[in-house]
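Journal club side-thread
Mid-discussion, someone asked how the predicted structure for our own chain would compare to the paper's figures. Pasting it here so we can look after the session.
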Amino acid sequence: MLKDAKAFSGFSVDDVPAATRFYGETLGLDVTEADGFLRLHLGSGADVLVYPKADHAPATFTILNFPVDDIEPAVDGLAARGVRFETGEVAGLRTDERGIVRGGGPLIAWFKDPAGNWLSVLQDDA
């Protein structure tokens, strides 16, 4: 019944202008804003709806994963743009000093958006 529906995902934030700056300027995604909502236009062709919520609570799980060919320059480039990667223990896994988890799966580094939602870059070895 919904097989051919053009489904999309969404998540909430507490400040749409801050999200617009972060996703558009800091991360470099194509974004559009209309009627108080933000749309992220991802490289995969999918869109994600970002909507304001007065009682927003940050997601406790990763809401977006960004596959990259090489995680180290991706982490360095994002850090130079002000992204702060989580270090220490994240999701029960240890990171190195740059925030990259090495071992137990793909190389991955987690960070948060201004609303506290979890995001990641992960090395796509496919």
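Post-session note: The two ends are 32 Å apart (CA to CA).
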